[in-house]
Design goal:
Layout (H helix, E strand, L loop, with lengths): L4 H21 L32 H18 L5 H19 L2 H10 L10 H20 L2 H19 L3 H9 L3 H8 L2
Helix pairs in contact: 1-3, 1-5, 2-3, 2-5, 2-6, 3-5
Length: 187
């Protein structure tokens, strides 16, 4: 194992375990109610969305990693990369637990086209944390310009394929716009 990588893997495992336990206590299912786990599930408007390892929303979690790395680099440069990673992982964990709270689930269902959304499975939440970690790792090694181009490309890809992405997700969660909801429903 690469020197120092063990600390990152241990940190991820520990925070993922704690997140999963808290989500379990809060009633989240471990795996899809369908009874199996798929590597990829690409049908957004289905009861299996956000239940498997990867889906179209995994792209937004990679972008979370880009954003967390960038924010840490700008605001917390005095902290080591490892501590910035730990903070990013903790923030992503908090987001996963908040995203799967009854409050946010009901908000998604009321404000977006996600009428069949009942929250993530624990497997999906932990996978989302892994995609954030991947984005953080890429951002820590790639030139900033490349990371920005990659983020834009991921946003445009999701927009083209599923009529949704991180930007629209945040917008519709904070300030729903009926015209966007109608456009998304036409997918």
């Amino acid at each position: 194992m690469i020197r120092g990588a063990r600390n990152y893997v241990f940190a991820f495992g520990f925070i993922a375990l704690v997140t999963g336990l808290i989500e379990h206590i809060n009633g989240r299912v471990l795996i899809c109610k369908c009874g199996y786990v798929k590597l990829w599930h690409g049908v957004v408007n289905s009861s299996e969305n956000s239940q498997h390892i990867a889906d179209w929303y995994s792209l937004s979690h990679v972008i979370h990693g880009f954003l967390f790395y960038g924010a840490g680099w700008l605001l917390l440069r005095r902290l080591s990369l490892f501590y910035r990673f730990m903070l990013s992982l903790a923030l992503e964990s908090c987001w996963e637990m908040f995203e799967n709270s009854s409050f946010i689930i009901e908000r998604y269902r009321a404000a977006t086209i996600s009428l069949d959304y009942f929250g993530d499975s624990i497997v999906n939440s932990v996978s989302d944390m892994g995609f954030m970690a991947l984005g953080f790792w890429i951002a820590s090694r790639a030139p900033a310009k490349g990371v920005i181009i990659a983020a834009i490309a991921l946003e445009l890809l999701a927009l083209a394929v599923i009529r949704d992405n991180l930007t629209l997700n945040v917008l519709m969660l904070l300030h729903p716009i009926e015209a966007i909801k109608q456009w998304q429903a036409g997918a």
